[in-house]
Amino acid sequence: MNGTLVRPCDSARAAMRRRAQAVALAVLVAMGGNVAARAGDHGVILDQQLDAQGRGYTVMRVWGTFYQMGQAQAELLGDAIVLGVQQTKAYLDQFGAYNYVRGIMANAYFTPDIDDEIDGMVAALAISHPEEHIDALDLKVASTAGEWLYGCRSHTCWGRYVAEPIRTLSTRRLDFPTLYSSSNHHVLCARQPADGSPRWVNMGWPGIPTVVTAVNEFGTIVSLHDYNCSTDFAAGRMPRMVATRLALTFATDPDVSTHLPAVFAELQNYELMTGSFVNYYAPAGFGGVMVENPYQSGPDFYYYRTPRVEWHHGEAMITTNTWTDGTTTPPDENFGADAYYDDETPKTQESHWNLLAESGNGLHMFSIAFRHRADMTIWADGRIDGAGRTPRLEYEWSELFGPVGDLTGEGRVDLADLSLMLAHYGTTSGAAYVQGDLDGDGDVDLADLSLLLAHYGDGT
C-alpha cells in the first residue's frame, strides 16, 4: 500500500466486516468460548466512604442510554438523591421560594439528554421511594443550585510548564458555601453514553445530571465560575449548569483545536438565565474562557478569551471571578499564580493541586494530568463541613472506565463489546466519534479489533 486512505465501497466494507467476524470468532473459540455478556443494571459503585450522616464520597460508573444512566444513579444512590431534594426544598421554603423556582424550571430549557437522564431517575425513585412523589421538576431544582452563585479559582498550563509524558495540567477549586448537609456527599461519576458521544467524569453530588466541574475524554475540563451574576428567568432560557454540560459533551472532532470555536458557536444559539464565565480548558493551549450575559443585545455568549503571550508566554491560563482579557492577572487573584508561573521549571500535578489547596477550602477540588485522549490522571476531593475533607481520590482514566475494549462500560471486555465493534467495523468517522475506534485514528479497523481481542476477558 502507498499510504493513501481509500474509503471502501459498500461491498468491500461488508467483506471486511465478514473477515473481521471470522477472525474474532476464531479467536473466541481459541479462548475457550468465553462469550457470556454481563447482564443487569447500568451502573456500579467503585468505591464509597460515608459516615453515619451520609457525608463522604462515592466513586461510580454508569453506562447505557441517558435514561438508563439516570435509572442507575437512582438505584445506587436513591436515599442520597431523595435527601438532596428534601433539603433543597427545605432551604428554598425558608424564603417561600420553592414553588417559584419550580415554575422557573418548568419553563426552562434543558437539553434532551439531561431530560432523559432525569426521567430515568424519576422512574427509579417511583419504585424505590414512591412515598416521596419526586418528579422531574424536583430534580431540576436540585440540579441548578449553581444558577445563583458559584465563586471559583482555576488554572491550567502546558508547554514549558510541563514535562513528558504530561502535556497539560489543569486544576479547579469550587469556592461555595454548604447550603445543606447533602452537599457533603461528593460524587465522582464516570459516564459512558451508549450513543457514542464523549465519555466524561463529573465531580458533583448525588443525582446531579448538570455540570459544575467535569472532564471529557479529550482532556478538556469544563467548569462554571461566577461572573456578572445578573439573571433573566424568562421562559425558554437555559440554566448555565445545563450550558456547562452541553459545552462538555458537544464537540467530537478528533482535532481538539476545533472544539472551542465549535462549542462557542453552538452555545450562541441559546438564551441563558444567568451571567457567567464557563471555563473550557482544552489541552495544550486550545482552550479558553467563554463569557455570557443574559442581557446582551445579541447572543448571550458574546466573547471568549484564549491564551495570550502577554501572560506567562501564552502557556498558562487563570480564571477567577472577575474580568480579564488574558493579558493581565485578574484583580481578585489570591492564590499566587504569578509567582508560581514566574518559576518556569516544569510543574507536577502535586504542585499544581497544592497551589489552590493551600490557599482555600473549596467545596470541591478537581485536577487532571493529561497525556493523551482517554489517558490522564484524575484527582478530586471534597469539603466535609466540621470534619475536614474527603481523602484525595486518585484515579487513572482507565480505572474509572474499565479496561481497553470495554465499549459498553460494564467493566469487562466481552461479547457485547465485540459485537458493538463489529457493528461499526470498516467505518471511517471523519469528524464524529465512532464506538470501536480504540486507537483514536478516526476509523474502526483491524488495529482496533486487535486491541479489543488482546484485552478480551479483562475486567470484573
How is this structure best described in words?
With 460 residues, the chain is of the alpha+beta class. It folds into two domains: 64 residues, no CATH class; 274 residues, Penicillin V Acylase, Chain A. It has twelve helices and 15 strands. It starts with 9 loop residues before the first helix and ends in a 6-residue tail after the last helix.
Largest sheet: 9 strands, mixed
* CATH level 1 name of the largest domain: Alpha Beta
What structural class do helix, strand and pairing data support? Answer: alpha+beta
What portion of the residues fall into strands of 2 or more residues?
A: 15-25%
pLDDT below 50 for ≥5 consecutive residues: which ranges? 1-10, 28-40
The secondary-structure element order is HEEHHHHEEEEEEHHEEEEHHEEEHHH
CATH topology grouping of the largest domain: Penicillin V Acylase, Chain A
Average pLDDT, rounded to a whole number, is 89
The named CATH superfamily of the largest domain: Penicillin V Acylase, Chain A
Oligomer: single chain
Helix percentage range: 25-40%
How many runs of DSSP E, i.e. beta strands? 15
Strand order of the largest sheet: 1-2-5-6-7-8-9-10-11
**Count of individual helical segments:** 12
Distance between the termini: 40 Å
Shape: globular
Give a brief outline of the structure:
It contains 12 helices and 15 strands. With 460 residues, it is an alpha+beta fold. It folds into 2 domains: 10-33 and 415-454, no CATH class; 43-60 and 146-401, Penicillin V Acylase, Chain A, CATH 3.60.60.
